[in-house]
TrEMBL record:
The name this protein goes by in its record: Thioester reductase (TE) domain-containing protein
GO molecular function, a single term: alcohol-forming very long-chain fatty acyl-CoA reductase activity
Region of interest (Disordered), residue spans: 373-395
Domain Thioester reductase (TE): 4-198
One BP term from GO: long-chain fatty-acyl-CoA metabolic process
Species, as recorded: Streptomyces lydicus
């Protein structure tokens, strides 16, 4: 049996769909709340990936088990916990609080203590049970330059967010557990995962899609509201408006198609692990942050953004500060030029076609809700600019 946490999330749903295609083993999904309602959520999440999953077959294969991720024995009785541990052959731990600016205590509780409870489940079962732990490439923290090795796990650079630190500490716990027990573990560090499928209402969405939804709300604001947000300096504004925000104009961020990420992870899972093996699940090419910002701002035909490394908060207008709050989850990437070593990933996925180019059309589609109308003519000049710049958007 395969046990999965976080299966109703964006990555977890794609992973669950792929695991159901991979073989015919039963899957136990650790969930919150009523198991029947959770089963419906799981089915909707799997179908949101494009999988044509037949409901009767899904109900036969997938068993939702209500748990409390941070509670002793996951909130199960001793007998239930033992039975689950001994039936499990693989654990795919995807559950996480991914709030970039969430409270540190809540992030630690879910991401670190929750990982500890999953390790306790593994310890209670057979030694041969495999652990596949989903971390993030951003455990690299505030490191802004150079090539990050796949085995690197250090805190000397500090962390831009409490989320990054919590995922770092969860990885530390996995490594310590593997060392102390002599067990193997596979750690995946995905980049920002994206899709080219517009999301239906209620479906799990990736981080960029959530940010784009906020941007669409901004694009619907009338200019009176924008001027009020600008504060006393509103009389100096003219439209279209170019906002200057702190960051590097040559900053890079790594985006990766979620379908390819899952296929790569399943390839890596076929390897015999010895100790802890870590993979940067990243795209071989990075994206320009400036290009990505302009793409996200297409619904706002009155607004453009330029990143300025010399800008200090004291020189920012109230409107710029509002924009910084709107994009708070992404601002740490506005300073980064680092790259991720993927040598081990490339070796493990030999024979798998490399991920395709991340075009403006693909990223734009994935940031759009299925119910949204096509871009208005007012935004067509911005869209043309993004398309023309796409040739130089990849570095």
């Amino acid at each position: 049996m395969i046990t999965v946490t976080g299966a109703t999330g964006f990555l977890g749903a794609h992973l669950l769909a792929a695991l159901l295609r991979r073989d015919d083993r039963p899957v136990c999904a650790l969930v919150r709340g009523d198991p029947e309602e959770a089963r419906d959520r799981l089915l909707r999440a799997v179908r949101s990936t494009g999988s044509r999953c037949e409901e009767a077959a899904f109900r036969r294969r997938v068993t939702p088990v209500p748990v409390e991720l941070t509670a002793p024995r996951l909130g199960l009785s001793a007998a239930e916990h033992s039975a689950l541990a001994w039936r499990t052959q693989e654990v795919w731990h995807c559950a996480a609080d991914t709030s970039p600016l969430g409270p540190a205590a809540a992030l630690h509780r879910t991401n670190v203590e929750g990982t500890g409870r999953v390790l306790e489940l593994l310890a209670a079962g057979a030694r041969g049970t495999r652990l596949f732990h989903v971390s993030t490439a951003f455990v690299a923290g505030k490191r802004r330059e150079g090539l990050v090795p796949e085995d690197a796990l250090e805190e000397r650079y500090g962390f831009a967010t409490a989320y990054e630190e919590s995922k770092y500490r969860a990885e530390v716990r996995v490594r310590r557990w593997a060392r102390d027990t002599g067990r193997a573990a596979t750690v995946f560090r995905p980049a920002l995962l994206v899709t080219g499928r517009p999301a239906e209402p209620g479906e799990p969405r990736h981080w960029l899609a959530v940010q784009a939804a906020r941007t669409r709300l901004l694009g619907r604001q009338d200019r009176a509201l924008v001027l009020r947000a600008a504060g006393p300096a509103a009389e100096d504004l003219s439209f279209p408006y170019t906002a200057r925000l702190p960051g590097r104009p040559d900053a890079l961020v790594n985006l990766l198609q979620v379908d390819w990420a899952v296929a790569a992870m399943l390839r890596c899972a076929t390897r015999e692990a010895d100790g802890v093996e870590t993979f940067h699940v990243t795209h071989p090419q990075d994206c320009s942050v400036q290009w990505l910002l302009r793409l996200a701002l297409e619904p706002c035909d009155w607004l453009d953004v330029e990143l300025d490394p010399e800008l200090v908060p004291e020189r920012m207008r109230p409107l710029e500060r509002s924009l910084m709050r709107l994009a708070a989850g992404l601002t740490p990437h506005w300073w980064s030029r680092r790259r991720y070593d993927r040598t081990r990933l490339a070796a493990a996925t030999a024979g798998l076609a490399p991920p395709g180019e991340l075009t403006a059309e693909y990223v734009r589609a994935g940031m759009t809700d299925a119910a949204c109308a096509t871009p208005s003519p007012a935004g067509s000049a911005r869209a043309d600019s993004v398309r023309k710049g796409a040739v130089n958007a990849r570095v």
